[in-house]
Write a structure and sequence with these properties.
EC number: 2.7.7.-
Largest sheet: 2 strands, antiparallel
Bound molecules: adenosine-5'-triphosphate
CATH architecture of the largest domain: Orthogonal Bundle
Number of helices: 14
Number of domains: 2
Distance between the termini: 65 Å
GO molecular function: ATP binding; nucleotidyltransferase activity
InterPro entries: DUF4172, Fido, Fido-like_dom_sf, Fido_containing
Enzyme class: transferase
CATH topology of the largest domain: Fic-like fold
Protein name: Adenosine monophosphate-protein transferase SoFic
Radius of gyration: 24 Å
């Protein structure tokens, strides 16, 4: 019990009348809008096929990283194919479907490709059911397709070993959820000029995660709602950057700022500034990943007339996707699933054709890179 004092933001007197200092946020907001504009402009020039590849790359990162926050590691190949299948993008051989991966992909694609459709409780229940198709989270049975009921006590965000857990946040009691969620959904669906669209995305994320209406999956759904409002904000249902991936990279910061905000006042300027900074970095990364997609496309165009076998194409694609470390004959053989002799023959052929070059990185074994 909180003895009447307001410990969490949802207990504040004027909840949920968000306040912030627009003057402080104006310039980071303009900078994010500029980066978004430049990114969409670059994409407008690259043609359908590459645009689809760029979007596939961003969505794959989004799905993988949003699940990593929860501690699940999804298989990148299943995620890529699950998205590619739904977007109708050709990525060559498709990996087999994984029901679990399909659920989270369904949610993120529904949130973004149908970003203009109203957000309703039925839609949220559908997303939740897609995340937990068995009705279990790990070994615990959870309520799916309905708000949580607090049968096992209040909803808390805790960390640490059992017995010495630290409570970071406590969400509003379950009996308030019907009213609270109706108010939230009405706000999401009402187009007003009350908040700039980017700030509305940040507020929706915070508001939802503060209500924490489900037994589990609240973080992932909050990020999907954020992505939905960002898609509305930039007027493009196709995604070319991933805020979830950036949040995953900076997740300790994300937890800290959330905790401070949820224990603070209704003035959430700091949370909004953090959200804009993170979005800014997500956009910078998207520019880099677009550079990589374009570079790869140009590389294959330039070498279109050189005959190559499947092994060579496979390893070159690995190098083009940003291979960590040095590519040696031994690693080549492992990736191409061939003997070191065959690997060396493939490598020598590409050296002779000017596709590869030796790099003098030192060390005992020779390493190879793409000849720029
Ligand atoms: N220290 C904290 N203070 C306040 N909120 C927190 C804190 N740590 C995490 N959270 C919020 O709680 C969410 C986790 O809730 P829940 O476990 O229901 O969601 P999830 O989708 O299963 O998890 P995750 O976000 O880890 O993938 C986090 O994403 C974050 O939004």
């Amino acid at each position: 019990m909180f003895c009447g004092e307001s410990r969490y933001i949802w207990q504040a007197e004027y909840w949920p009348n968000w306040r912030y200092d627009l003057a402080t946020l104006a310039s980071p907001m303009a900078e994010v809008a500029r980066l978004q504009g430049v990114l969409l402009g670059r994409l407008a020039d690259v043609g359908f096929a590459l645009r689809d590849q760029a979007s596939l790359a961003a969505l794959t990162e989004d799905v993988i990283k949003t699940s990593e926050i929860e501690g699940e590691r999804l298989d990148a190949a299943s995620v890529r194919s699950s998205i590619a299948r739904r977007l109708g993008v050709d990525i060559g051989a498709l990996a087999p479907a994984d029901r679990h991966v399909d659920g989270i992909v369904d949610m993120i694609l529904d949130a973004t490709t149908n970003c203009h459709a109203p957000l309703t409780r039925e839609r949220l229940f559908g997303w939740h059911a897609a995340l937990f198709p068995t009705g279990y989270s790990g070994l615990s049975r959870i309520t799916v397709g309905a708000w949580r009921d607090d049968a096992k006590g209040p909803m808390q965000v805790v960390s640490g070993p059992i017995g010495r857990q630290r409570v970071h946040f406590e969400a509003p009691p379950a009996d308030r959820l019907d009213v609270e969620m109706d108010r939230f959904l009405h706000w999401v669906n009402t187009p007003t000029d009350e908040h700039p669209p980017l700030l509305k995305a940040a507020l929706a994320h915070l508001w939802f995660v503060t209500l924490h209406p489900f037994d589990d999956g609240n973080g992932r759904i909050a990020r999907a709602i954020g992505a939905m409002l960002l898609a509305r904000a930039d007027g493009s249902p196709q995604r070319f950057y991933s805020l979830s991936a950036q949040i995953q990279r900076e997740r300790q910061d994300y937890y800290d700022i959330l905790e401070r905000t949820q224990k603070g006042t209704l003035d959430v300027t700091d949370w909004l500034a953090w959200f804009l900074r993170t979005l800014h970095r997500a956009l910078e990364r998207a520019h880099e990943s677009l550079d990589a997609v374009l570079y790869k496309a140009r590389f294959w165009q330039r070498h279109a007339s050189i005959p190559m076998n499947a092994r060579q194409i496979k390893v070159l694609n690995r190098l083009l996707d940003g291979f960590d470390g040095k590519m040696t004959t031994r690693k080549w053989a492992v990736i191409a699933k061939c003997s070191p002799d065959t690997a060396l023959r493939d490598i020598n052929d590409l050296l002779a054709r000017g596709v590869l070059q030796k790099c003098n990185a030192g060390g005992r074994s020779t390493a190879y890179t793409i000849d720029l």
